[in-house]
Amino acid sequence: MLFDELSNIEIWFIITILFIIRYGILAGMFFYIFYVWKKKSLYRFKIQSRFPLINQIKQEIKYSIMTFIIYGSTIWIFLYWIENNKTKLYTDINDYGMAYFFISIILMVLLHDTYFYWTHRLIHYPKIFKHIHKIHHSFHSPTPWAAFAFHPIEAIISIGIIPIILFLIPYHQFSLLIFISFLTLYNIFIHLGFVIPGIRYFKYQNTTMDHDYHHQRSHCNYGLYFNFWDRLMGTYYPKGRMKNKK
Ligand SMILES: [Zn+2]
Ligand SMILES: [Zn+2]
């Protein structure tokens, strides 16, 4: 079936390199626009006054690449489940129809938001935080390169959403691909460090300001795509401020 001609090592290598290339293109694009090319003209939209040191960016990239090596390594177990028909994969879009194809992506996003919120709360428990999540929070003024800069255990926790989706939601391979690409893009976006005016399309959407404030203060705004759970659990703090409005 999938990757029939390739050895496990080749599959691992190709998947990992593809993850890193996708991340490099997306994070690199945002970084180049906001931190290099339009750095001066967009400075008024920068949330925190200071720009990160080159050393911070190197650390963000190093930990993100480690995360993608871990993500790439998990592909073996996922392929084993998929090839042995243990997941809810369907290959013909007509089996469930086009409407369901898009609904399944929305379901994945909602499920992931819930998974992210609660695992994020978990790794903020002080005894866990100091061993695991502290690395991600060492980037007080995050850049797009920080989006996947995790301790290896946090990387494993974060990839835990994939088996939940594979076993719970009937999915087409392209719906999963769209979801993972959207996840990557949105995670990079919330670490941008700049406000993009007009990008909040609805009240419950998590924004760059919300997540930047999480990096500054920790105990609020745990969500990824939305703030439903933050509002429900009383952890939503919407009043992150721009540097020049303090
Ligand atoms: Zn973050
Ligand atoms: Zn956190």
Overview features:
mainly alpha, single chain, 11 helices, binds zinc ion, 246 residues
Could you characterize what this model shows?
This protein has 246 residues and is mainly alpha-helical. It has one domain. The protein is 58% helix and 0% strand. The protein contains eleven helices and no strands. The chain is globular. It starts with 7 loop residues before the first helix and ends in a 13-residue tail after the last helix. The model has no long low-confidence stretch (mean pLDDT 93). Bound molecules: zinc ion (2 copies). The site of one zinc ion has 5 residues, from α10.
| Tertiary shape | globular
- Measured on Cα atoms, how large is the radius of gyration? 19 Å
Helix-and-strand structural type: mainly alpha
Q: What is the percentage of strand-forming residues?
A: under 5%
- The overall average pLDDT, rounded, is 93
| Ligands (ions, cofactors included) | zinc ion
Domain unit count: 1
Q: Tally of extended strands?
A: 0
Q: Count the DSSP helices.
A: 11
Q: Which sheet architecture does the biggest sheet show?
A: none
Helix and strand topology:
Blueprint: H1 8-37, H2 54-73, H3 75-83, H4 97-122, H5 126-129, H6 134-137, H7 152-159, H8 161-168, H9 173-190, H10 208-217, H11 228-233
The structure holds zinc ion (2 copies).
One zinc ion binds at residues 136, 142, 191, 211, 215.
In short:
The chain is an all-alpha fold and 246 residues long.
